[in-house]
Amino acid sequence: xxxxxxxxxxxxxxxxxxxxxxxxxxxxxxxxxxxxxxxxxxxxxxxxxxxxxxxxxxxxxxxxxxxxxxxxxxxxxxxxxxxxxxxxxxxxxxxxxxxxxxxxxxxxxxxxxxxxxxxxxxxxxxxxxxxxxxxxxxxxxxxxxxxxxxxxxxxxxxxxxxxxxxxxxxxxxxxxxxxxxxxxxxxxxxxxxxxxxxxxxxxxxxxxxxxxxxxxxxxxxxxxxxxxxxxxxxxxxxxxxxxxxxxxxxxxxxxxxxxxxxxxxxxxxxxxxxxxxxxxxxxxxxxxxxxxxxxxxxxxxxxxxxxxxxxxxxxxxxxxxxxxxxxxxxxxxxxxxxxxxxxxxxxxxxxxxxxxxx
Length: 358
Prior knowledge:
This protein has 358 residues and is of the alpha+beta class. It has 14 helices and eight strands. Strands 1, 2, 3, 4, 5, 6, 7 and 8 form an eight-stranded mixed β-sheet that branches. A hairpin with a 2-residue loop joins strand 1 and strand 2.
């Protein structure tokens, strides 16, 4: 299809997205921020986070200088928290290793923490006009359907075929609009479910449509049994504050504040949980109540969460362990705290227990 890029660019001019807050400029910092936030996250969800983030960190220097805890707090609720940690690390690398100037090529950008080949190419194309192919989820779906590419795109051999195809389709000029057009087509027409094939500029050439295989391409990930885990969490309330614990940098919810996890070896009986809290935190006495359970789905497993409400006796607010890992957070400050979404749901449900039932 020799005119693929030309037709796609023409479609984008008339039907693409032109009013997104990160469009219309060539600031690599703003483009980078938007590309990282948009990974595995819908545009409508990203827009308010993007605005708040820029208001607090208007440039790479301010982001690099901020405590990572503040970065995580602004990211709270957006999910995939490794993105925020890598964003902070990359900002520091730009300041320390590049004199505060964003790297000028896709190859150099890809060396920064948390930036892969496709994201680096998108940043370089939008900011510098570099002629580089991208291969995000939207583009993979578009290419697999239009050109009839078989096999799961996550397989290395299939991915290599898609990269070669993507590079062969690059236009000589107008790379930024072309890259945006690829993203727009996948996000607005060639969607995962219920694609609007009748409005697609390639409706007459699409292999998947011609062979009635739109629902089959891209080839789905081979099915695997998703593991299920369970854990209990201590909701420790005292006066006007809740006791939270900073998670380790690696692992789920890395760097966020969370509820202390009750060790699996502690029996689930409330009396045993109370005894654990007294010995572990040094409380005088603990009143315990089970709260409603809830389930949270991660990318690779499902977590069944059982919160237990604990109300320690008086004289317990000096509790601390592992330096600053534990901290009392006023209930009035929870909106600004860097909390994982399910932990926030648990704390919100204290005021309205019917918000979740399991």
